Every structure is written in structure tokens, then in C-alpha cells.
Backbone:
């Protein structure tokens, strides 16, 4: 699946009532497609972008309930974006995703939202994006090569 940085793509699962809206900012088109498909199946309308500029434009134009950001975008752009989004809307739910083993600890300490380490279990992602997920921030990290566990900060 190709995701064009300038043209956001969307998938929405059919459902009754208001549909929550998510902003996905991911540098890897395959990961972006995975997030998009999963969120769509879980009842979200997903706007996708590979660039911070397009993501900011989408965010300012739409009312997003959730942002899933790639923390590994060049020049710390994913972390910058998360901070900028939260500055504009402090109640936004943010999930930062990274495959850098050392990259998530500073993100978790910064308190920008939930953090998820690649590779991750789709059930862990689903738990983070469900509307009923509330309370403390959740930090997901790989405890060994075969398993992922959850800690509440």
C-alpha cells in the first residue's frame, strides 16, 4: 500500500453514531497501512501522513481524538510533532511508536502520551486506542525476544 505524503488516505469501518478520528504519522508506508487498517476495523476514521507539515495541516483542519506518531522520524520530528499537537490540544490522546530500543525511555519520561515499541502485539495497540482507555500513561516495551509486557507509569 502506498501512502502519499501530500495526499492523506483514509479508511473508515462502517458504524452507527459519531466516528472517532485518528491522525497517523508514520514514515514507513507498510506500518502506516497497518495502523490505518487496524484503526479502521476498530471503528476509527484514519487520516495518514508521512510528513510533519501535512500532519499539522490535517490536525488543524480536522478534529482528531487520537494521534499515532512515529517517534523515529528524522531529526526527532515525531517527538516535535507530538509536543506541537499537545500544545494545540492538551486533551489529545497520543501514542508514540518506535523500533529504537533506547528511544522510548526519554519519550516515556517526557510524558507525551503512551509509547509502544515495535514489534508490538496488535492487542496492545488496540488497548491503547480504545475510547475507554483512560488514566495513567502506558509504556509498552519488549521484555524479551518473545514477549511484550505492559507497565503503567
Residues:
Amino acid at each position: 500500500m502506498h501512502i502519499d505524503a501530500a495526499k492523506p488516505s483514509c479508511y473508515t469501518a462502517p458504524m452507527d453514531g459519531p466516528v472517532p478520528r485518528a491522525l497517523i504519522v508514520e514514515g514507513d508506508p507498510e506500518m502506516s497501512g497497518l495502523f490505518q487498517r487496524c484503526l479502521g476495523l476498530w471503528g476509527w476514521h484514519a487520516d495518514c501522513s508521512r510528513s510533519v507539515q501535512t500532519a499539522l495541516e490535517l490536525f488543524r483542519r480536522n478534529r482528531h481524538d487520537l494521534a499515532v506518531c512515529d517517534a523515529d522520524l528524522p531529526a526527532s520530528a515525531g517527538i516535535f510533532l507530538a509536543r506541537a499537537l499537545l500544545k494545540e490540544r492538551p486533551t489529545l490522546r497520543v501514542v508514540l511508536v518506535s523500533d529504537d530500543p533506547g528511544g522510548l525511555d526519554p519519550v516515556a519520561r517526557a510524558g507525551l502520551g503512551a509509547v509502544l515499541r515495535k514489534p508490538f502485539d496488535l492487542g496492545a495497540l488496540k488497548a491503547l486506542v480504545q475510547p475507554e482507555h483512560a488514566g495513567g500513561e502506558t509504556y509498552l516495551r519488549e521484555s524479551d525476544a518473545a514477549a511484550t509486557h505492559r507497565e503503567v507509569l
Summary: The longest helix spans residues 29-41.
